[in-house]
Input
Amino acid sequence: MYGRHPTLPSDSMPPVLFDLDDPDQRLETTARELDAVGLHEAAARERARKSGKLSEERHARNNKVVTNRFSVGDHVLLRDPTAFKFEPRWYGPFTIRDCYPEFDSYQLTFPSGQLHPTRIHADMLKLAKLEQPTKELWYYKAHATDVTYVVALNLAGQSP
Output
């Protein structure tokens, strides 16, 4: 690879000179070469097993995985992945109405009590530090998925 010729385990063994007509000698030499290759294969399998075990231990110690971050009634902010340069990255606060731990997602409600049109994954949320509950959103930008919902609210005379 990259300027080096590929080598096989049997390449490190000296060339064998034997009589091609003698089947016993050919069989014995072939068996010896296969045993040598088998030893290399067994060593490679052992290295792979140890590497796998180390990887398992490393992932078992991984404490960065957090599940069930929020509970019902918490106030959260929703990340806006389409925010431009001078727009807020987070909007809300929303209240968590339902938790779906199998999907790590949450059903949110607007401060007015209306449901958010979609369930939101926990990666898109962060805890809002409120001194007192608010009845208005700090900032909200309607997305294509909830335009019909916002239009319906506007027709009803409510703000999202």
Observations:
- The radius of gyration is 32 Å.
